[in-house]
Design goal:
Radius of gyration: 15 Å
Order of helices and strands: HHHHHHH
Strand content: under 5%
Oligomer: single chain
Distance between the termini: 4 Å
Helix content: 55-70%
């Protein structure tokens, strides 16, 4: 994913990911939260591996991924995948698939059907030409 695409995603969800600084901890920045989530979705690395790579706690990585997925679903899903209405032309996979739409679809499916997450990641990596 290009830095422009990442900034675009952050423009939608950055405020949802921003945490308050308190006296005994510095929060994980929204950019790092998104990076951890995208790496988890792209590679399927374990939470322990990601925690080690990003120097975060395992529970922190888990929380980052859940919160980021929820934020993407809340803020981006209505924009990129609106609920279909009668008479609406439904074309879910156009020839030029935007990376953000693919990521949003994967996240939506992971949140609504967590047992099928591996299937969606495999299908996306095999069938959809991602730009980046």
């Amino acid at each position: 994913m290009s830095s422009t695409d990442m900034e675009n995603v952050l423009s939608y969800i950055g405020e949802d990911l921003r945490k308050q600084t308190i006296s005994f901890r510095v929060p994980v920045e929204p950019q790092q939260r998104l990076a951890v989530t995208l790496r988890y979705l792209a590679t399927g690395d374990s939470m322990h591996s990601l925690a080690y790579c990003y120097r975060l706690g395992v529970q922190t990585v888990s929380d980052c991924i859940k919160e980021t997925c929820r934020a993407i679903e809340k803020r981006m899903l209505p924009v990129y995948l609106p609920k279909p209405t009668e008479g609406m032309d439904i074309n879910l996979m156009p020839d030029t698939t935007d990376t953000l739409i693919v990521v949003t679809c994967i996240l939506h499916n992971m949140l609504t059907r967590p047992g099928e997450a591996e299937h969606w990641l495999r299908e996306a990596s095999e069938d959809v030409p991602l730009r980046g």
